[in-house]
Amino acid sequence: MHLLEVKAVSHSYNNRSFLMRKKGADQVLNGVDLIIEEGTCVGLLGQSGAGKSTLGRIILGLEKPKAGQVLFEGQDIYCADQRTRKHYRRHVQAVFQDSYSAVNPRWTVEQILSEPLENYETMSRKERKGVLIHWLERVGLSEKDLSKYPHQFSGGQLQRINIARALLLQPKLVILDESVSSLDMVTQGVILDLLVELKKELGVAYLFITHDMTAAYHLSDQLAILDQGELVAQFRSKDDFFSSEEKAVQKMRDAMLADHPLSRTIGRPFR
């Protein structure tokens, strides 16, 4: 049984004219099939407008698809009972692109990190604080940061806090939606290395939604390509991406550059 399976998911948004009359529907996703196994990172690649974030919201249970199923451990999350949905919400967490809008600016880090524990765990304040300190240290911060507010951190530091919040319930799957794209290149590399370490340590699976091939290649075990709402390929090995003859894959491949300017050759990255 797969950890998560997206089956024939389609979605569209109603398009309205100037007079607010229905003008048809914009098809965003069309019959998407996607599989994520335990402990595996799938990099979901596509250009802007390909439908990546919409698919992420559907997987998170935030937006019901017009057609298709999202199965978590064999259970359709949109037809599940309350107990199953609560289990799903605990074990599928997310880290979004904008680290600042993902937190309450009036809350301290202790309050931000405590919220999921209060929702899903029963423990004393002392036990809870011990858990928070452990996770802050695990992402490279410290106990003294518990009393600080979001505006006192850089974007990279705050994203570490968001990662800690996503992982402290020890979920089985984390959706990373453009979670490093707003960071500078150096900070991106540090955060990606941290995510690789945590994946190995915890055995957690990731869906890494991105338009950045270099970041996807660094973190992912497998790659999936979304083009104009259709999943045109899912590669069981990320290296298979470079031998694919699919036009959408070739177009994406040809647009990439190698990491170092001296080794840049169009269509031949990662030398």
Structure description:
The chain has 271 residues and is an alpha/beta fold. It has a single domain (4-263), classed as Rossmann fold, CATH 3.40.50. Helices cover 33% and strands 25% of the residues. The chain has helices spanning 52-59, 82-91, 109-120, 125-138, 155-167, 185-202, 213-219, 247-254, and strands spanning 4-16, 22-36, 41-45, 67-72, 75-76, 92-95, 173-177, 205-210, 222-227, 230-235. The strands form 2 sheets. The chain has a 6-stranded mixed sheet, with helices on both faces. A 4-stranded antiparallel sheet has the order 2-1-4-5, with helices on one face. β4 (67-72) and β5 form a beta hairpin. The longest helix is centred in the C-terminal third of the chain and has 18 residues, at 185-202. The radius of gyration is 20 Å and the shape is globular. The protein starts with a strand and ends in a 17-residue tail after the last helix. The relative contact order is 0.16.
Would you summarize the structure shown here?
By secondary structure, the chain is of the alpha/beta class. It has 8 helices and 10 strands. The protein has one domain: 3-Layer(aba) Sandwich (Rossmann fold).
Global Rg: 20 Å
Helix/strand/pairing category: alpha/beta
Q: Write down the overall geometry.
A: globular
Question: How is the main sheet built?
Answer: 6 strands, mixed
- What is the terminal separation in angstroms? 37 Å
Return the average pLDDT rounded to an integer.
Answer: 88
Strand content bin: 25-35%
Domain ABC transporter: 4-253
GO cellular component, one term: plasma membrane
Protein name: Nickel import ATP-binding protein NikE
Pfam family, one: ABC_tran
